[in-house]
From TrEMBL:
InterPro entries: Aminotransferase_I/II_large, Kynurenine-oxoglutarate_AT, PyrdxlP-dep_Trfase, PyrdxlP-dep_Trfase_major, PyrdxlP-dep_Trfase_small. PANTHER family: FI04487P. This is Methionine aminotransferase. One of its GO terms (molecular function) is pyridoxal phosphate binding. Belongs to the class-I pyridoxal-phosphate-dependent aminotransferase family. Its cofactor is pyridoxal 5'-phosphate. Signal peptide: none annotated. NCBIfam families: PRK09082.1. It comes from Flavobacterium enshiense DK69. Residues 25-371 form the Aminotransferase class I/classII large domain. One of its GO terms (cellular component) is cytoplasm. The keyword Transferase applies. The lineage of its organism: Bacteria, Pseudomonadati, Bacteroidota, Flavobacteriia, Flavobacteriales.
Length: 375
């Protein structure tokens, strides 16, 4: 008997396969198609011959952990104890799965805000928990009336993805204040802050749970070097949480992966001495602006993009088809692959919106835009 009977091939795999079959430009894949930083590759080439290929300590390479601690202070003015409040994970998804399965018990509820990343619900189900999925407002801001109505003594956790995939929206100061007020009434609720796009923000600064003193002692924060350094295939991220929570997370982590691959930890530890995250954000801002400028005269309606490397568009001026069918047609007839937004909703909410990934070479974006302007 399947533990995940409703899980089938992901929409990402389906659209990528269709893109390959039709020779389409693939803007559905949520990862870059350009090389990693040359400096990162040079460090890799130099270190590969070193004595760095055995297990690191379970929680992570000490030098990398120390530098993450400094990075956290530099960007968020939060002092963490890197030896007791930090864990290197095999990607943020593994970190999220581990955190959920550490704290969520059978029958306990987890609030998910739709449209939501597809790994959340299966992780809750595997823990024996009950996913409670609540739709965001039409502008993808949190609907606090619905969130408050869903909170109960059974609620164990709320997952907040900020900056948000798939919409690219960033929470505001006032929204954090409302959340703080709500959760003050429910001290048993933990927060899982999925902040994997934290260093990719544009029109307004990313506000991290690291900076929220009323919430930080009950929050597990997931970060991703794969996203931040555009090396998604390395599958390396980290969790930061108060020591009492981290102690429990480590108990599960050690029997899940024990320790993350040593090679990438050593490389990133050295690379953190020279990388400029502001420059990475600026690079993605240029790509966002290029893509928006290229398709502004198309029949697609551009929606706001505060952060991440995803751009939403509305196609209601082009077709009344549902978004899955329109996405398939876009590939077959027009040669560009996107992700339909309805797949991120439990109830399949369809507002004729697609997600394009602009973490691509300028040449890819230019060629894709030519095709989209002919739609």
């Amino acid at each position: 008997m399947s533990k995940l009977p409703n899980v089938t091939s992901s929409i990402f795999s389906v659209m990528s396969q269709l893109a390959n079959e039709h020779g389409a430009i693939n803007l559905s894949q949520g990862f870059p198609n350009f090389p990693a930083d040359e400096q990162l590759l040079q460090i890799s080439e130099r270190l590969v011959h070193g004595n760095i290929h055995q297990y690191t300590p379970m929680a992570g390479l000490p030098s990398l952990m120390e530098k993450i601690g400094k990075l956290t202070f530099q960007y968020y003015h939060r002092n963490i104890n890197s030896s007791t409040e930090l864990l290197i994970t095999a990607g943020a998804t593994q970190g999220i799965y581990t955190a959920i399965n550490t704290f969520v018990n059978k029958g306990e509820e987890v609030i998910l805000l739709d449209p939501s990343y597809d790994s959340y619900e299966p992780s809750v189900i595997m823990a024996g928990g009950v996913p409670v999925r609540i739709s965001l407002n039409d502008d993808y801001s949190p609907d606090f009336n619905r969130i408050e109505a869903a909170l109960s003594p059974k609620t164990k956790m709320i997952i907040i993805n900020n900056p948000h995939n798939p919409t690219g929206r960033i929470w505001t100061e006032s929204e954090f204040e409302v959340l703080e007020s709500l959760l003050e009434k429910h001290p048993q609720i933990l927060i899982l802050g999925d902040e994997v796009y934290e260093y990719i923000s544009f029109s307004q600064p990313h506000i991290s749970f690291h900076t929220r003193p009323k919430l930080v002692e009950r929050t597990i924060i997931a970060s991703s070097f794969g996203k931040s350094l555009h090396v998604t295939g390395w599958k390396i991220g980290y969790l930061i949480a108060p020591e009492n929570l981290m102690n429990e997370i480590k108990k599960v982590h050690q029997f899940l992966v024990f320790s993350v691959n040593s090679f990438s930890q050593h490389i990133i530890s050295e690379y953190l001495d020279i990388v400029d995250f502001h420059a990475i954000s600026k690079m993605y801002l240029q790509k966002r602006d290029l893509f928006r400028e290229l398709i502004k005269d198309s029949r697609f309606e551009l929606l706001p993009c505060d952060g991440t490397y995803f751009q939403l568009v509305n196609y209601q001026n082009i077709s009344k088809q549902n978004d899955v069918d329109f996405s398939r047609e876009l590939i077959a007839k027009h040669g560009v692959a996107a992700i339909p937004l309805s797949v991120f909703y439990k109830d399949g909410t369809d507002r004729n919106v697609l997600r394009f990934c602009f973490a691509k070479t300028d040449e890819t974006l230019i060629e894709a835009a030519k095709k989209l302007k002919r739609v």
